[in-house]
Design brief:
elongated, single chain, alpha/beta
Amino acid sequence: MRSNNRARCGTNDTVSRLAKFDVVSIEDLETSDIERVFALADGFAGQLAQGDQITTAAGLIMATLFYEPSTRTRLSFESSMHRLGGAVISSADMHASSAAKGESLADTVRVVAGYADLIVLRHPHDGAARVAAQYAPCPVLNAGDGSREHPTQTLCDLYILRKKKGHLKGLTVALCGDLKFGRTVHSLIYALARFGANIVAVPTSGMDVPDYVLDRLAAERNYSFSTVTMDELKSLAGGLDALYLTPSAPHQMALFTGDGVLRKFPAAEPPAALDAFYVTRLQKERMSGKEADPAEYVRFDARALRTSRTHEAVVMHPLPRLGELAYELDADPRAVYFEQAAAGVPVRMALIALLMEKAAGASAGARLTAAAIRFKAESPPRCSNLNCITRFEGAYLAPRFTLGRSMDATVLALKCGLCERELKIEYVGHARSHRYYRFDENLQGYVRQWIEEGSLAVFDSVKQAEEAGYEPYRRGPQREIMNDEEIVRATESLADQVIADVHDMPGVSMVGVVSRGAMLALRLRDLIGAKTGVFPPCAALDAYKPADALHPIDGAENFNVEDRTIILVDDVINSGWTVQRAMATIWQRGRPAAVKLAVLIDRGHRAVPIRPNYVGKNIPTSRGERVQVRLAAAGTETKSHDRVTIYSIVEPLKEPEAAH
């Protein structure tokens, strides 16, 4: 996120003294940058101790925009600018700003950049700092975005750790507690890996280091670390250099990835000593309330420092603390958390001074970033991270993905350009031939070629690919398993099942998944109406078009889902992902009394635990087989074109037809 752009952000002539150098991630800083920050911080700390008047940033204005509460980060940033001789304008409560009126983050930072030379941003959504950096013409410093990163806190942590231990390489640091949502921990992990420290993760049950952090470390730094329970940590031979503690509880040495693949981390040799404990509070504001039991939180007191293993360990905490650190520790010289907080002033002074040095030396060179992929699809993919900024300000934030670096060769990994989470794609398509493929490593080269020529399409499911008009790469043996008469009987059976199960037919609304599910919903509506005299209103739902996902069909007016029994209709349930998305869309439109699923064909092999309420026919299939339903369009005199076929999908070879 760096560029040579030194465009004026404000109105005074000193603004060119700050480079357009954004610090969104700790990775935006080179190792030499971090070393320079430490050297500058040492100098500023000495000057502050002597009471020197510092005018390094005289004439500069910092704006602090905090969409979340803060004490240490905001006040230390503001104090830093005042100590440097600059000025501060602040919006400590963005709920009292134009954001409360619905102003976008992009507009806010562009406006504020007209008043200030530097913006410091804290925001609840992952990737928000990246958006601010892209739209603001002045430098943006990330003061924490969602559960993603908090790079300037990591600078303070590293600064104190090195000051206490003399070096970073080879230190053993225990990170304990909430390692899932703790953004300070995520930035610290990336930095410790870079400096060659040894990490021991001790998470609370369910609060493990996220897979995307582990994947990034493995792919970019070939780095992994041990994960242990607190009991296991206590039994390790040796001691600790630092324990960075967050409230936590048992965790397994074997972790499961999001797709259910068991991943074992290499067992590490027990550390000879622990150098630091890093403790953080439980990030309750980012939880659904089910992740952890407060009774399981780590409680850290003086007893932990009385063993030979931990005699030389320092205790760190980014603060605020809740109940995980005993107050009796405060008097122990190994408790350095208040020094961490105090270090925020000289370290952040140093970071501002670094921006000035880069501007003066023209060293803030453009950072090369991969161009966003241009997808050939009506609906481009959405970031899988529900807290990504694109989920909240998507109107102007088009999805931006680059190729990721997943360790799983059976999926195409796409990295969100804002929150940096990876989206794992199972099906890819070639727009020129309109063929889709189940991805495997043999397609890597072709996918890169399709990206270059702008012909790559990606799909969440086979259903989405076929709805978009794509055919499988190659069909294997094909046979008809249902004709028009059998489809009629199965549809009538569905109608009878619904009537027998639902006693309040006037309270029913029907939603058909585009397109064949919607056609079936209309047929079911007519059958139910003929049998009961009640014709439920119908709507079509496109699970892959969130902007216009649900719309009434066949004369239905004022269609709503609130307090209604929704019969969700689809032709075939395959993995279940499409149905899951459809159900989520329904709930976003209101709170139905119930949602029941009716499918013409249940073929098994579901990836999500969804069971249909009403089934026309069960057809057991293998994973490599595809069931395809063909239905005549509404208004057609005869249904002789209705049929259900089953065929096998031939896996892509090393030379796909679509590439020629």
